[in-house]
Amino acid sequence: MKVDPIKNLPDRDSLDEEWISWRESLDVFGKKQANLLFIKAWKKRSDKGNFIVSGKANTERLRDYLEKRGIKIEKGIADYTVSFADEVEGFFKSALNMGKYTGIACGVVVLLIIMAVIYTLFKNPDYIVKGAAAYATGGASLAVR
Question: Smallest Cα–Cα separation from 27: which of 41, 38, 42, 12?
Fold first, then answer.
């Protein structure tokens, strides 16, 4: 026995995934009728809200989903702020991700320099002896003789 989608209507407090799932269940009526039913239910839900915040369900995810099906829903004022904050967050995530790879590249360069210095020191042990003597005498052993 199938559940009647009309009786399973999401409410104002429903999340976007519940509205998406409900819209998919309306496909049994055909696209045009399903869209009309969705819009009617969405407007009824919006009447209980306000123009500032349009609820938990009015997310980018839901708006993208509905736009692909030919439905456009409006945002509340706070929804624009949330969308802008999401874009800013995405920018910083990208920047931090780029920073991570830049940090790794710098670390590799520093490691290569250290390895080159160690190779040079072991290839010419006089550098080690002169460096140790200079350190022990506070640099006096480096004075020109």
Answer: 38
